[in-house]
Q: What sequence folds into this?
């Protein structure tokens, strides 16, 4: 991270959300189930960056490491917040799913191809950009082009098995731009 | 809510978004269609909590009351903001849909089961965790694992018939964790 | 925009997210791929407005111009932020997809109608409100009722070909309310 600009740090109102079975706050606790989580006071921060992913072949790809490489340093400065990840394209998609077995990703690609007709039997009017184009648009709306992930103690607060997927729906892949916006304290 | 920590209250810039047919602001107005809504000045606030839902059987379940029970007190302190609700799992999903007739929920479960093949005729490679596991992953990406809801005057600003659903896609249900993040003024 | 209330402007912490191939910040740069983007210091701002869209016939409709007409002036005051767009209904949906060829929108409507059974052959129990009602609920959860779009330099930071669609899933269209929440600096 170059050129960090810290114009001012300032107090702001933060809340300790207690659990039902605890009556005392624990400043060092993580936001785990049933544990209170005290967020350190700091000025509200915004950060935004466009990340360009290299071309990926048609299918579903785990991109959590790539995203973390680009924003991990910035992320580490947020105690509590939200990360918004926005794909600027209409023929690919972002989703959160299993991060371990690559068969889950190829099975998901199989599902998408089975559910959205492609080729001569498909009913599409929009065919100028190739037989895979209209199916790609539909798949993009099915999974969506944006994700919002909670930030806790400098990290994405996802489940153990969750990862961020880029789903490329075109046959001839191209680089894809993602706008990442971080907001928090 | 135990242990609220109010480090400082501070002014910040807020905006009155006027409607086309009104030229005066009304501080007590709700953000209804065509009505201007003036948000009270207060320091920006963040709150975050992990809520554990007990096991729910396979199918779609209305969980708005459960969420409100856990965060309602905190929510009431936000005049304007956003609530982010994040499910930390890849074989269940969150969606917003009808909150009245339970038939809508069971019909939606019927749809999901009809659209995603399961069992011996299914083409999945990922079958180690049971025949319902890969279909569960697919359904999770179809509906998604996260919701963002506007907050207005201390409440979720949803439509009259909208509710938050937890859709459990596994046959053997388990407890599910949800990270709720509130941000606003 | 009537009645803007500027209670105070205040410094806050902002971050310059540098690219890998640049070591100097450029305050006037856009958040383009590989370019650093310095966000101007200003107080955090929240704005919220309910926009009522007139009835649209069943199908997919590009509504970016309508949204911009309602919030464009306010949007222009945000250097960096997020726009949340929330549809308060369970039988219509919002999605981001192609903004140019209307065939993409009609093909998407064709897909939705092919994938969700309607009429006498459909397995739905919830039929009191007409044969198009239960399919409308399902389509609403497939595409979702909410979008979050990054704001950069006073504008939606979407891709060249991206637009916001309202998908009306009922046969007899009605006016639809959308709650727009802007947050940023």
A:
């Amino acid at each position: 991270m170059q050129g960090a600009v810290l114009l001012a740090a300032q107090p702001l109102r933060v809340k300790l959300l207690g659990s039902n079975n605890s009556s005392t706050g624990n400043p060092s606790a993580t936001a785990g189930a049933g544990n209170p989580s005290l967020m350190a006071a700091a000025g509200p921060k915004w950060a935004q960056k466009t990340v360009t992913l290299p071309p990926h072949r048609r299918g579903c790809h785990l991109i959590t490491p790539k995203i973390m490489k680009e924003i991990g340093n910035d992320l580490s400065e947020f105690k509590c917040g939200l990360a918004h990840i926005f794909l600027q394209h209409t023929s690919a998609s972002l989703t959160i799913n299993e991060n371990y077995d690559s068969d889950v990703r190829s099975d998901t690609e199989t599902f998408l191809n089975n559910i959205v007709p492609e080729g001569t039997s498909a009913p599409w009017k929009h065919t100028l950009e190739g037989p895979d184009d209209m199916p790609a648009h539909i798949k993009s709306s099915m999974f969506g082009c944006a994700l919002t992930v909670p930030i806790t103690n400098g990290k994405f607060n996802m489940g153990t098995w969750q990862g961020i997927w880029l789903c490329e729906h075109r046959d001839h892949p191209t680089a894809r731009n993602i706008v990442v916006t971080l907001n928090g304290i």
Notes: The two ends of chain C are 18 Å apart (CA to CA). Confidence is low (pLDDT under 50) at residues 1-13, 18-41 of chain C.
